[in-house]
Amino acid sequence: MSYDLFIGDRAFSSWSLRGWLLFVKFGIPVRTHVLGLYSGTLSDDLLPLAPARFVPTARTPEGWVIGESIALAETLAERHPDAGLWPEEPEARILARWIVAEMHAGFAALRTACPMQLFHQYRGFQVTPEVSADLARLEEILGQALARFSDGGPWLFGRYSAADAFYAPVAARIAGYDLPVSDRLARYVAAHLSDPAFRSWRSEGIAMSYDPMPYARDLPIRDWPEPA
Ligand SMILES: N[C@@H](CCC(=O)N[C@@H](CS)C(=O)NCC(=O)O)C(=O)O
């Protein structure tokens, strides 16, 4: 028996990407179902999963529904203790939970100004003071995790953890809007862009066509920055 995961359009639904990575990166079997986020049917599609109102929403093999990505991360960590969703080291685990919660509750300026889109890279995006403050906070918290716990690897806490799943869409925003970041953060972004799970999600996402393109910006575009 497998879990079911209900997601939105892969190219645009940042929370869906988080939810999906929480299964796929930790080897937890899941069947994925795409709901009508942009076709306008989402509320009806979610009726059988009440009281869910957003994607991602998951359903356990027992038929129990899980809404909210943090609840999903904690539920999967509890039910699959050997999967390694959270770092093993207690202090690292505290910081991982902290930055996941901060992502879940914060970064409103970045999220509003730079909605996730995986099709191309916008050029010439004007960084507002509010977005700049969010980028500075990312440098601080991700920088601290990388400096203290990454063990020289690309991920925040050594092995890929739920925290990396939560920051994958942030990496996509930095890439998709060519946002200015430090070399350390740029390396972290590159790790996400070259991650096989992320790449597979993106290629399914951009196989869809949209007219009009959601979140289109009146800016020059160039190809998505493929990792070297
Ligand atoms: N707090 C939720 C956020 C989920 C969310 O906002 N999902 C968006 C798609 S990325 C959605 O379902 N939007 C539909 C709507 O706003 O009606 C979580 O952590 O899962």
Automatic annotation (TrEMBL):
Domain GST N-terminal: start-end pairs: 12-78
Recorded superkingdom: Bacteria
Annotated TM spans: none
CDD domains documented for this protein: GST_C_3 (cd03194)
Pfam families according to UniProt: GST_C_2 (PF13410), GST_N_2 (PF13409)
Coiled-coil ranges per UniProt: none
Official protein name in the record: GST N-terminal domain-containing protein
Provenance organism: Celeribacter indicus
